[in-house]
Amino acid sequence: MNLIGPWLAPLPAMLGLAVLAWAVATLRRNVGLVDIVWSLFFLLVTGWHFAMQTTPTPRAQIALGLALIWGLRLAVYLAARNWNAPEDHRYVAIRARNQPGFTVKSLYLVFGFQALLAFLLSLPLAAAVRGADAALGVAGFAGALLGVAGLLYEAVADAQLAAFRRDPANRRAVMNRGLWAHTRHPNYFGEALVAWGFYLLAVDGGAAWTVFAPVGMTLLLMRYTGVGLLEQDIGERRPGYAEYVACTNAFFPGPRRLR
């Protein structure tokens, strides 16, 4: 328990945040608001372990800084985009599949599940903060650079998409400009880079065993909650998306293809 206890310590606070988010989402009848707190779960874990350190290492400071900038930026962006928007079609489908009683079921099917998943995927950040070796090695520098690169890539992609959506003429058009000309999901690709950056910081702290976290995050983004789920019916909502699929990579950036 002495070994496991410190790792589990932030979990009750994460579950508490999940319950609070569930209450707000229930009042607004929009469980899609869970996306706003996703990155805040990671920030909570990082901040918790950082606060437990008597003398935080440079690695711990870098991990906290990256988690802070990434977590707050993503949460603010999603809050501005989703707060007054209709419930995302993905959550509408989940709601329909789990009636009757979805209000109660969403507490554990959506909010509790995401809190537990975030706890597992945030372990590289916890390990980076808790690493005993004070010196920042090659893996630590690489992780910091990769994390910053992913954060910038994701932020630029989100800004480009937001500007595109503000134009009423683009209501049913396909975003295929800027970073979106080279990958259909540059925001997800940036998110994966951030996850691998966190992992390299953990490796620098002696926790290579947390490799399941970036692998899991990448698979989620590519196959399940990200690209795979989003593209199930997007062709029905966006005329011309099939053409976009034929010319543009799904996840990894690359040159546009000729049909």
Structural commentary:
The structure is a single chain. The chain is an all-alpha fold and 259 residues long. The protein has one domain. It has helices at 5-8, 11-28, 34-51, 58-82, 89-97, 102-121, 123-130, 138-166, 186-204, 212-223, 227-230, 234-237, 241-247. The longest helix is centred in the middle third of the chain and has 29 residues, at 138-166. It is globular and about 55 Å long. The termini are far apart.
Brief descriptors of the model:
globular; mainly alpha; single chain
Q: Strand-residue fraction? A: under 5%
Question: Quaternary state, please?
Answer: single chain
| Number of E-type strands | 0
Number of helices: 13
Helicity range: 55-70%
Order of helices and strands: HHHHHHHHHHHHH
Q: How would the global form be characterised?
A: globular
Provide the residue-averaged pLDDT: 91
Are there runs of 5+ residues with pLDDT below 50, and where? Answer: none
Helix and strand composition category: mainly alpha
Short structural summary:
With 259 residues, this protein is mainly α. It is built from 13 helices and no strands. Helix content is 68%, strand content 0%.
